[in-house]
UniProtKB/TrEMBL annotation:
Gene3D superfamilies: 3.40.50.2300. It holds the Pfam family Peripla_BP_6. Belongs to the leucine-binding protein family. CDD domains: PBP1_ABC_RPA1789-like. Residues 27-376 form the Leucine-binding protein domain. InterPro entries: BCAA_transport, Leu-bd, Leu_Ile_Val-bd, Peripla_BP_I. Residues 1-24 form the signal peptide. This is ABC transporter substrate-binding protein. Keywords: Amino-acid transport, Signal, Transport.
Amino acid sequence: MFKTMMRRAVALVAAAGLAMAAQAAEPIKIGSFLSVTGPASFLGDPELKTLEMYIEKINEDGGVLGRPLELVHYDDVGNASSARNFASRLIRSDRVDIIVGGSTTGATMAVAPLVQQAKIPFISLAGAVVITDPVKPWVFKTPQSDRMAAERILGDMKARGITRIGLISGTGGFGSSGRAQTLEVARDMGIEVLADVTYSGSDTDMTAQLTNIRNTEGVQAVLNFGFGQGPAIVTRNYAQLGIDLPFYQSHGVASDSFLALAGEAAEGLRLPASPLLVPDSLPDDDPQKAIVQKYKSEYEARWNSKVSTFGGYAYDGLMLAVKAIEAAGSTDPEAVREALENIRGYVGVTGEFNMSPDDHNGLDADSFRILEVQDGGWKLIN
């Protein structure tokens, strides 16, 4: 009798152990919706490749909390309505533990109310300040904000003695937000915006808008805030018109693909970007140097294509998610959300992240470096 009871006890313990092991081995689901195809594919393609690559690497190293990561991904083709539908599927059907995605501001803002209602952590890869300001408890993001970009650009202009500018911007979510932030920052910094023109995503020639700026008396420099093919068209038209003024772009075009689209017309322009585009130019004591060099070499070796700033946003988003899950010791949504909110001193590809209950981005304007196009490549200015 005693032996029979012991065998049953051993069997129950073994069964419980197997159940716990099975539960521990259940994958941690990372949900994602990205613009892998369509007009914003230059954002989503490197973002998806980055997530796929590093989830594989993390799993090869044993996963997180002893569990493998599983990527559940949908291509929203740059459409905000599709992004919302896919996010709903990730939350309700796929039952993901955290979402890392949202290539564009429009897609991100369409999804934000859903994650707020579902109470699931969401790390966006889009740039507009409205994503995290005002703070939304369940929404975080990795790129610097458009306001930071405006501060960095206008600060560089003032250092060059420029106080009167012309502004041209896209009418999409990113361009509109960037324009609004630029106007506010310019006012705060004592810079006059003498000309303020826009273009739509379907425009194929911005000569008229640039001629308006060129004919505005007193303009000392020009800033274009936008992303996609529009800024490349603006850059080519700028050169065609022979405008002999300092020219700036936003971080929305910080990639080698922009240089390929703009060609020789990009020579001399400046923009704010992460140091990922010029890792070897960083001083050896820069805490980001080893990280950006490693990411760049691993990405380019794996995909045989140039690294981009946008892939770097995905790298940071994934690593922040992993750090938060590890700190929480589980995938409990509230515990992960709280852990994200308390990440300090994480040095990533984009910059050093210091999150707080009042700051769900965790970066400052100094995380941007000013780059200039010289001899068809990027040159670190400051």
